Amino acid sequence: LAARLMSRSISASLVTRSIEDEFADPSAPFAIVHPSLSKTIVVSLLSIAIDDPFAARPDVWRFANGKRLTLSPWPSRAAQSAVLEALIKGGAGVDGHAQEDNRPMKVAVASANKEATNMLLK
To answer: Its domain of life (predicted)?
Structure first.
């Protein structure tokens, strides 16, 4: 589920199917490790599913050496909203995880992502 979210190659219906049929845990944190730094960033699936619609490249995805994690955008704002909604309905916590520096609302606001911000406030 995480890899498909990061590559933006999953639909809301596949998110739901992954959660219901394949027992994917939408609330599970996962770690992104920068290979040259041995630095780990703990993130939630919800945070990683939030787009940076204006290519603002917020510092929330910056590693200690200045390198950034850059993800492709979702095909549309509607696709992103549907995936976020499927994750939330499936049990993803809108507040993220205690060990997560880049919680969903922080990512949404830093990315100037109005759709994601509104989805998290519902």
So the answer is: Eukaryota
pLDDT, tens only, 87-114: 999 999 999 888 887 899 999 998 999 9
Which tokens is 94 given?
A: 């809108």
- Assess contact for 69 and 32: CB atoms under 8 A: yes
Measured CA to CA, the distance from residue 24 to residue 68 in angstroms comes to 27
- What are the tens digits of pLDDT across the range 2-57? 999 999 999 999 999 999 999 999 999 888 877 776 677 888 999 999 999 887 76
Q: Could you report how far apart the first and last alpha carbons of the chain are, in Å?
A: 23
List Cβ neighbours of 11 (8 Å cut-off, separation of 6 or more): 79, 82, 83
β-pair partners for 41: 32
Per-domain residue ranges for the chain? 2-121
Give the C-alpha separation, 5 to 15, whole Å: 9
Residues 6+ apart with CB under 8 A from 117: 105, 108, 109
